[in-house]
Amino acid sequence: GVSAADTKRWTDGLEWFLKRVSYRSPFKRVVLKSPTHTGRLRVLAEAFPDSKFIHIVRDPYALFPSTVRLWKSLEKYQGLQTPTHANLDEYVLDTLDKMYTQHWADREHVDPARIHEVHYEDLIRDPMGQLRAIYDQLGLGDFERARPKLEAYLSSVKDYQRNTHELEPELREKIAERWGAYFERYGYATGVPAVV
Q: pTM score, two decimals?
């Protein structure tokens, strides 16, 4: 629903930002971890023809509370008013649905060789194997050259404790109903607890 002129203004602004971020290291690949870009796949692919995409999917029963927690944090530290979190659950449910409707439509227009999809649970279970697969599919270079730094990083976070998520049955039912297409497309079961 965004006009071509507004889209162009947005992509020009993003390009301006990325040039400044990469000014001191112009030959290093810029990596953006921006969940909102999930719904901008086609725009980004067209604006940046050499871009590659890593799409991480996650159990919806873990994704929902994680996203709610993120918004609460953003509102607390970056908001200009005292947050009330009114209708936040509905906002999160609605936004993911819209974002993925657009993402799935956009994928039809982007070369599959430019996108690698990984389940978060697989990444946690086998980070080195999943990273190697990402490098291989996207042609990111010599994985063995990157391995020592990746291993050092993974060693530094080995004691990290992921959040656990307890959801009321009514909310679980609403998530399963509203995000049914996501559950189905990515192979998550609607009646089982989240694997986090």
A: 0.87
Burial category of 65 from C-beta neighbours within 10 Å (exposed 0-12, middle 13-18, buried 19 and up)? buried
Q: Is the dihedral of CA 138, 140, 141, 143 positive or negative?
A: negative
The residue among 188, 56, 186, 58 whose CA lies nearest residue 115 is 56
- Please say whether the beta carbons of 50 and 27 come within 8 A: no
Evaluate whether 44 touches 109 at the Cβ level (below 8 Å). no
What band does 194 get if pLDDT is binned at 50, 70 and 90? Answer: low
Which pLDDT band holds residue 159 (cuts at 50, 70, 90)?
A: confident
For the chain, give percent helix, strand, coil, nearest 5: 60, 5, 35
End-to-end CA distance of the chain: 35
Q: How many other C-beta atoms lie within 10 A of the C-beta of residue 45?
A: 20
Give the tokens for residue 181. 């297409």
pLDDT digits (tens, 9 = 90+) for 83-94: 888 899 999 999
In sequence order, the 6+-apart residues with CB closer than 8 A to the CB of 133 are: 116, 118
Characterize 111-130 residue by residue with b for buried, 16 or more Cβ atoms within 10 angstroms of its Cβ, and e for exposed.
eeebbbebbbbebeeeeeeb
Beta strands in the chain (DSSP E): 53-57, 115-119
| DSSP category for residue 29 | P
